[in-house]
């Protein structure tokens, strides 16, 4: 942690992370599209000085999908509404490089950035084609590796378009009648393997230079991509030693690409379950597991595996590794971590479901227990911070009232925002416009080649 503070994002999950959280009496109707719910979560997160509000997204759903994927807002639309009712918290939206045109990504995210006075971030995702390709009519058979090649090229196009205007390109001098200095407006003229985009973008440069780049991954290819291009990386909270290994890989790769390892942050998911006593918290967690039930866990995992139906197998059969491996082009990093455990420990279907189909025991207990565990993950270099998920209605309020003060007392959580932009909040330097940088080096910016970092 460069500035001593852990980084904290909040990721709303609508109907809840599991397939049964929507049954909680405190969950409102249509929670994924309930703006008041999202607004209150964002305001609570801003109250305890969270860095950003992070909206995940998917581009397809079917009858087997978990509830939180079945009914949800499009990310940038929701965040634009939240920009009007928040002041400091960052606003990060997911847009897919596989199915969204880079010009549209650049324009939507930069519009959000200006609406929020420099608080926007882009969660760059390389979408699994299964399901989504049927909605867009393309990319039916691309590989995991090719998705990252597309993502790398899209990154170059989007960031190039964001730099279309130099910072002082629009003097808007009413006395002289000069609105634009034409030599400070740049055409990208990108012609690559997957995309063509002439530019310029019809939006001036961001107050923070460029919006912040996020990505979500756990695979080796994804970590290499993140180390080269991203500022923040969202991943799953596995056992601490697994996240420590990802942390080391990410930082080492960043150094290999000539970056300061502190400039890219690893943020695993964290769904605190807080109660006055450890026993009470564990009882609530046990009740959640009972509500989910074995069949509910099987249904949830089947949806997470893009429709692969675990109900076809006997509970005490060996877990079908070969079949799952053939479907692991989707959330590949998460899948491969689970498959590795299933293979190494020779799990049955029942054991696999019990291990991965229910809420984890991380961050469950009293406020002090949760603060202690979060600090341990930081101290043991398993992460730079966390992506918070509200595990049950009311838990975010509990975190704000009881855990956040403990973290603040320990010097792990800020008391005030340091500036007005998300870049300032994250402690990242404002990047120079790439066209200005190229001019100072007396050579052109090259945009017609984009190479996957995994290559």
Structure, described:
- It is built from 16 helices and 12 strands.
- It is about 40% helix and about 10% strand.
- An 8-stranded parallel beta barrel has the order 1-2-3-4-7-8-9-12, surrounded by 6 helices. A two-stranded antiparallel ribbon has the order 5-6. The chain has a two-stranded parallel sheet with strand order 10-11.
- The protein folds into 2 domains: about 5-275 and about 365-440, Alpha-Beta Barrel (TIM Barrel); about 280-355, no CATH class.
- The model is unreliable at about 445-455 (pLDDT under 50).
- It has about 450 residues and is an alpha/beta fold.
- Helix 7 (about 220-230) links the parallel strand 7 (about 210-215) and strand 8.
- The longest helix is centred in the middle third of the chain and has 27 residues, at about 280-305.
In short:
The chain has 455 residues and is α/β, with parallel strands linked by helices. Helix content is 40%, strand content 11%. The strands form 3 sheets. It has an 8-stranded parallel β-barrel with strand order 1-2-3-4-7-8-9-12, surrounded by 6 helices. Strands 5-6 form a two-stranded antiparallel ribbon. Strands 10-11 form a two-stranded parallel ribbon.
Helix content: 40-55%
Strand fraction = 5-15%
What is the CATH architecture annotation of the largest domain?
A: Alpha-Beta Barrel
Low-pLDDT stretches are 447-455
Q: What average pLDDT do the residues reach?
A: 90
């Amino acid at each position: 942690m460069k500035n001593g503070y852990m980084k904290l994002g909040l990721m709303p999950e609508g109907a809840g992370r599991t397939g049964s959280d929507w049954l909680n009496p405190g969950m409102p109707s249509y929670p994924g599209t309930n703006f008041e719910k999202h607004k209150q979560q964002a305001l609570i997160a801003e109250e305890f000085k969270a860095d950003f509000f992070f909206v995940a997204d998917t581009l397809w759903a079917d009858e087997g999908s978990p509830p939180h994927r079945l009914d949800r807002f499009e990310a940038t639309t929701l965040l634009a509404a939240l920009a009007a009712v928040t002041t400091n918290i960052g606003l990060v939206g997911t847009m897919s490089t596989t199915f969204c045109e880079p010009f549209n990504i650049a324009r939507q995210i930069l519009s959000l950035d200006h609406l929020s006075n420099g608080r926007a971030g882009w969660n760059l995702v390389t979408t699994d084609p299964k399901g989504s390709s049927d909605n867009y009519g393309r990319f039916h058979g691309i590989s995991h590796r090719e998705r990252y090649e597309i993502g790398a090229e899209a990154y170059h196009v989007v960031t190039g378009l964001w730099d279309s205007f130099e910072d002082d390109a629009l003097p808007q001098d009413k006395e002289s009648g000069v609105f634009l200095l034409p030599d400070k407006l740049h055409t990208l003229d990108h012609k690559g393997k997957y995309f063509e985009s002439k530019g310029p973008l019809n939006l001036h440069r961001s107050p923070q230079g460029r919006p912040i780049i996020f990505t979500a991954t756990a695979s080796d290819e994804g970590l290499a991509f993140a180390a080269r291009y991203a500022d923040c990386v969202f991943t799953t909270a596995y056992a601490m030693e697994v996240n420590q290994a990802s942390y080391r890989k990410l930082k080492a790769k960043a150094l290999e690409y000539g970056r300061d390892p502190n400039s890219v942050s690893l943020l695993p998911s964290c769904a605190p379950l807080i109660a006055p006593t450890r026993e009470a918290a564990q009882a609530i967690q046990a009740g959640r597991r009972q509500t989910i039930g074995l069949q509910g866990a099987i249904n949830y995992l089947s949806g997470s595996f893009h429709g692969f139906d675990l109900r076809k197998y006997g509970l005490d059969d060996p877990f079908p590794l070969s079949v799952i491996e053939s479907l692991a082009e989707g959330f590949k990093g998460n899948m491969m971590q689970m498959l590795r455990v299933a293979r190494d420990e020779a799990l049955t279907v029942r054991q696999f479901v019990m291990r991965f189909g229910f809420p984890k025991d991380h961050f469950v207990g009293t406020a002090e227990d949760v603060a202690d565990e979060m600090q341990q993950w930081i101290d043991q270099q398993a992460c730079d911070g966390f992506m918070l998920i509200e595990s049950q209605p009311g838990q975010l309020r509990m975190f704000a009232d009881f855990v956040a003060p403990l973290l603040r007392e320990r010097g792990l959580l800020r008391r005030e925002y340091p500036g007005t932009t998300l870049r300032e909040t994250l402690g990242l330097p404002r990047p120079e416009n790439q066209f200005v940088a190229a001019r100072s080096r007396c050579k052109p910016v090259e945009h017609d080649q984009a190479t996957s970092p995994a290559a």
